[in-house]
Write a structure and sequence with these properties.
The chain is of the alpha+beta class. It contains seven helices and 15 strands.
């Protein structure tokens, strides 16, 4: 509750939240005293939990949008089927690194989209992400030259390729929105389980940057997304610290930017009445686990 009070957000994207409508309703009541309320798929005549399967979220860590009660009637949650209609897929084929045989992948936690009525006929679209990561329990093995080998390396590369395909699916949705609306106000936020730049695996094996995939191509400038922390000092651009067993870096010396807020150009170039300025102070990134 103290974190909520300190930030005092109008709308918050809660990552690693409780599973199901009943639990998020209880959390908002018991922990937040209903100072923020969940935006649900539940209709007025639906029993609580009747829509749980329609969020298309596996596991116990769910994505939720919470809003202050006076704003809740201006918010609506979009059915994930709409996302799939825009992208044209619910599942997709993946060729893991160096493999000819394809496998099928999908969002373990489906992106959740909340639409906010700004007024004057304008809407702001929030895309909440919690991309799937896999805890690698395989034993770390190396060859005589110190290169990773075996099951640990294969598991790590598969996980990162899966993340990349999830990011690509997000961009397919964004592309469809730009084809539908000339100047969409879109904000992407959440835990992508990877930060800008090439970490060990991206740099040595995969040669791609996951966040650049979500941001889009800078040469297609109108569809490129700005990162909320791009104009902050480098030592402030991190959201979590974890020990790195591969590079043998302790948690205290390994700040990582895993949680992101990215905004579409219409939100920063003045073409919409709702505008996000540089050195953002009204949009904040914080990390906490349910």
């Amino acid at each position: 509750m103290n974190t909520f009070r300190e930030i005092d957000p109008d709308i918050i994207c809660l990552v690693e939240g409780p599973k199901g409508e009943r639990r998020i309703i209880d959390f908002c009541k018991d922990t937040l005293a209903n100072n923020w309320v969940p935006i649900l798929l539940k209709g007025p005549n639906d029993a609580i939990g009747a829509q749980d399967n329609n969020y298309q979220t596996k596991g116990s860590q769910w994505l939720w949008f919470l809003a202050k009660p006076n704003l809740a009637n201006r918010c609506r949650l979009q059915d994930p089927n709409v996302w799939q209609a825009f992208t044209g897929v619910r599942t997709w084929r993946v060729n893991h690194w160096g493999q000819i045989r394809t496998s099928i992948h999908s969002h373990y936690r489906h992106p959740q989209v909340m639409i906010f009525d700004v007024g004057n006929g304008e809407e702001l679209e929030f895309i909440g992400l919690h991309m799937k990561s896999t805890i690698n329990l395989k034993r770390i093995t190396r060859d005589e030259d110190g290169n990773l080998t075996g099951d640990y390396l294969e598991e790590a590369l598969k996980a990162r390729v899966k993340l990349a395909t999830e990011a690509k699916n997000v961009r397919e949705y964004v592309k469809a929105k730009f084809n539908q609306i000339a100047r969409p106000g879109i904000m992407v936020s959440g835990d992508c389980n990877d930060g800008p730049g090439h970490d060990f695996f991206e740099g040595q094996y995969l040669q791609f940057d996951l966040i650049q995939t979500i941001q889009g191509e800078v040469l297609v400038a109108e569809r490129f997304f700005n990162h909320a922390l791009f104009d902050f000092p480098g030592h402030l651009r991190w959201t979590a610290k974890f020990r790195d067993p591969i590079l043998e870096i302790p948690e205290s010396r390994n700040p990582l930017l895993l949680d992101h807020i990215l905004v579409s150009q219409p939100l920063v170039n003045g073409s919409l009445s709702f505008q996000i300025n540089s050195q953002i102070t009204s949009i904040k990134i914080t990390r906490s686990c349910w």
